């Protein structure tokens, strides 16, 4: 595909939707809310290819997937003919699960990970939290550990079907 | 000079998180049960991630160096972390209490640092605070579990308190660069942290049926080999050198080595 100067920002978002999180491969980085902005910047223009700047934010400070995500964005955009790509990592506003799309939450559920319940973190959020088991949909579940297989998840167990499962923490 | 103070302050925040994170990572694969092994490894990861954000900023301010140079190629006397962070983990109770004191400190510090006039420090604080809230919650629960647990667990956390208390005063004793940054609204005035910190400790200790700590944290600087120890000014215990020997070995032996 040859990129001319008419490519829209919307088309770039569509390209980015193909890139998935390395640790949760059913979720795209757009569904996860990692991509914050896309700019076609005149100051980045070189030769004929148009310059593009993608703003991303990490889920957690130490998330080891960020370098890989940056590289994957570059690779994908290069394949679409962009030659001048800048990835900018931004910290503020801090990433929150509120930015996860509804489509993303559905995909998580189907994948066997309970999606975040509620909006933004309040300090008591674990006390009266009702997390639905992604297998049997029972709400009779309990927290096993506040930390799960990755920084963004907690470990739960269903009291009805007894299946342990990951819960994507509301953050 | 203000710019020098800002660099030192940023390095101090970075070093605190890196050294604490590295210490906690020593538990990886050795935790008492799998869930807690994973928990403490996740906390270590958060802290090391936070330190990277601070180091990247410090490198940008200094110019001509990278975050890796700052983490892997500075000597012990150049590190500005608090002594508490570098102390050996000891048993589970000591590790937990260390983390609880440290997380309580970071929790109130970052809450205030969000208001910094330096936008990058403010952004890192905002990001880190969400993670530290979790660390504080987790370590508080463990202090309560150990204090209000068995005779043995209580004995152990009381012993940990005895060993760690004298290192808490350093948190509230500002170095020159902290005072300078606080004066310019870039950093946090440590005087405002002490009361919040102390109240949280008293509250959790009460829940844990532990006696309140003796007095408030006093900046007792340990005497060591004729030198007054003060981590923020680079005067460390021998334990920091032990960490650096381990952590910096690869970069010093094979300069520029990458995965």
Furnish the topology, listing elements before pairings.
The complex is a heterodimer of chains A (171) and B (259).
Chain A: H1 9-16, E1 35-39, E2 51-56, H2 66-79, E3 84-89, H3 102-111, E4 113-114, E5 141-145, E6 153-158, E7 164-168
Parallel strand pairs in A: 2-3, 4-7
Antiparallel strand pairs in A: 1-2, 5-6, 6-7
Chain B: H1 2-25, H2 34-62, H3 67-72, H4 83-86, H5 92-113, H6 119-147, H7 151-164, H8 176-183, H9 194-207, E1 223-224, E2 227-228, H10 238-247, H11 249-253
Antiparallel strand pairs in B: 1-2
Summary?
Chain A is α/β, with parallel strands linked by helices. Chain A contains three helices and seven strands, in the order H-E-E-H-E-H-E-E-E-E. The model of chain B has no long low-confidence stretch (mean pLDDT 94).
Explain this structure.
- The complex is a heterodimer of chains A (171) and B (259).
- Chain A is α/β, with parallel strands linked by helices and 171 residues long.
- Chain A folds into 2 domains: 9-89, Fe-S cluster assembly (FSCA) (GMP Synthetase, Chain A, domain 3, 2-Layer Sandwich); 99-168, no CATH class.
- In chain A, 19% of the residues lie in helices and 20% in strands.
- Chain A contains 3 helices and 7 strands.
- Chain A has helices at 9-16, 66-79, 102-111; strands at 35-39, 51-56, 84-89, 113-114, 141-145, 153-158, 164-168.
- Chain A has a 4-stranded mixed β-sheet with strand order 4-7-6-5. In chain A, strands 1-2-3 form a 3-stranded mixed β-sheet, with helices on one face.
- In chain A, strand 6 (153-158) and strand 7 form a beta hairpin.
- The model of chain A has no long low-confidence stretch (mean pLDDT 86).
- Chain B has a single domain (2-253), classed as Ferritin (Up-down Bundle).
- Chain B is 64% helix and 2% strand.
- Chain B has helices spanning 2-25, 34-62, 67-72, 83-86, 92-113, 119-147, 151-164, 176-183, 194-207, 238-247, 249-253, and strands spanning 223-224, 227-228.
- In chain B, helix 5 (92-113) runs antiparallel to helix 9 (194-207).
- The longest helix of chain B is centred in the N-terminal third of the chain and has 29 residues, at 34-62.
- The mean pLDDT of chain B is 94.
- The interface between A and B is medium-sized, with 25 and 29 residues.
């Amino acid at each position: 595909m040859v990129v001319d100067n008419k490519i829209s920002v919307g088309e770039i978002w569509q390209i980015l939707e193909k890139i998935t999180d390395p640790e949760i491969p059913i979720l795209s980085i757009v569904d996860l809310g990692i991509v914050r902005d896309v700019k076609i910047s005149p100051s980045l223009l070189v030769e004929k290819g148009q310059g593009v700047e993608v703003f991303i934010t990490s889920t957690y400070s130490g998330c080891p997937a960020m370098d890989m995500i940056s590289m994957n964005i570059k690779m994908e955009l290069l394949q679409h003919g962009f030659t001048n790509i800048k990835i900018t990592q931004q910290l503020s506003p801090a990433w929150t699960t509120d930015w996860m799309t509804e489509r993303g939450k559905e995909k998580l559920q189907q994948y066997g990970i309970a999606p975040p319940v509620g909006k933004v973190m309040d300090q008591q959020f674990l006390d009266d939290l009702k997390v639905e088991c992604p297998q049997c949909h029972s709400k009779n579940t309990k927290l096993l550990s506040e930390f799960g297989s990755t920084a963004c998840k907690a470990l739960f167990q269903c009291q009805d079907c007894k299946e342990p499962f990951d819960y994507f923490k509301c953050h | 000079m203000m710019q020098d103070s800002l660099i030192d302050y940023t390095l101090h925040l970075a070093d605190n998180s890196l050294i604490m994170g590295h210490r906690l990572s020593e538990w990886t694969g050795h935790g008492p049960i799998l869930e807690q092994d994973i928990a403490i490894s996740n906390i270590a990861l958060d802290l090391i991630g936070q330190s990277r954000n601070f180091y990247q900023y410090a490198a940008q301010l200094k110019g001509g160096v990278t975050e890796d140079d700052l983490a892997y190629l500075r000597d012990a006397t150049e590190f500005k972390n608090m002594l508490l962070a570098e102390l050996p983990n000891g048993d589970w109770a000591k590790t937990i209490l260390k983390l609880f004191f440290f997380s309580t400190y970071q929790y109130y510090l970052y809450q205030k640092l969000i208001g910094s006039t330096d936008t990058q420090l403010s952004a890192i604080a905002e990001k880190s605070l969400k993670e530290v809230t979790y660390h504080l919650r987790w370590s508080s629960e463990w202090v309560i579990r150990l204090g209000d647990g068995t005779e043995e667990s209580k004995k152990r956390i009381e012993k940990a308190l005895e060993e760690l208390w004298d290192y808490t005063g350093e948190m509230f004793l500002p170095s020159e660069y902290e005072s300078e940054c606080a004066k310019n609204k870039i950093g946090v005035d440590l005087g405002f942290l002490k009361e919040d910190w102390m109240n949280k400790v008293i509250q959790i200790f009460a829940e844990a049926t532990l006696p309140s700590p003796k007095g408030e944290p006093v900046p007792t600087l340990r005497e060591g080999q004729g030198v007054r120890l003060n981590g923020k000014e680079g005067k460390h215990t021998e334990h920091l050198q032990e960490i650096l020997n381990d952590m910096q070995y690869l970069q010093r032996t094979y300069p520029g080595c990458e995965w």
